[in-house]
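Protocol step 4 of 5: obtain the predicted structure for the target chain.
Materials: sequence only (see below). No template structures provided, no constraints applied. The aim of this step is simply to have a reference model before the mutagenesis design in step 5. Sequence pasted as it appears in the construct record:
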Amino acid sequence: MIITPAILPKNHEELVHKLFMLEGLCRVVQVDLCDGVFGLEKTWLPFKEKELLEGFSYEFDLMVKDWRKYLSRVIALGASRVILHVDDFGDDDIAEAIVMVKPHLIYLGLCVSNDKNVPAFASLVRRVDEVYSKVFIQVMGIKRIGAQGQPFDDGVLRRVEYLKNACRHIEIQVDGSMNPETMLKVRNRGATCAVVGSYLFSHGATHKDVKKTLWRLEEDFK
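Step 4 output (structure tokens):
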């Protein structure tokens, strides 16, 4: 199972600080971007920054209403993976997103809120896969997006299992309330990646502490 550390930064300084804590420990890091409207909290949002710390492959989770603006900005920052929350997307939105990421060979993650219809979402994922193979699924392990430290939503287990069967070759990652217990549950239902935020950073505020926690998770979920 792949473990991706997640950062929900209140500001650019916190982002840099946590990236230094992860330096040399992982290749991919997820950066959560929330506008305080779509996502519960308001985080740092890229504005004038032209680059980020070297040594990482960046995945951006765009929990924002104005997804076009921030998708353009993270592409400019060198995103290798992006996640769009497609609750209100129509076919034109999906087509536009593909046009934006395709020239850069960016992996496109699709996610919907936990109260949305799963078969309809699976159908959307399959349609995207037909025209853009660099697609993956993100399932939320919590009911309300955009805030760390929320309780695990057991309903995610049925969602992962359904999507695994409906979209067999497509990667599924779970984001939210990931810890050793919940990671085991979602892995057993077919998830291939866990995005870990508060569990990783709440077990220590130093590079050494984060290294120890991440190493233990990676050993347990090889």
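Step 4 remarks: Residues 118-131 form the longest helix (14 residues). Residues 21 and 178 are 19 Å apart (CA to CA).
Proceed to step 5.
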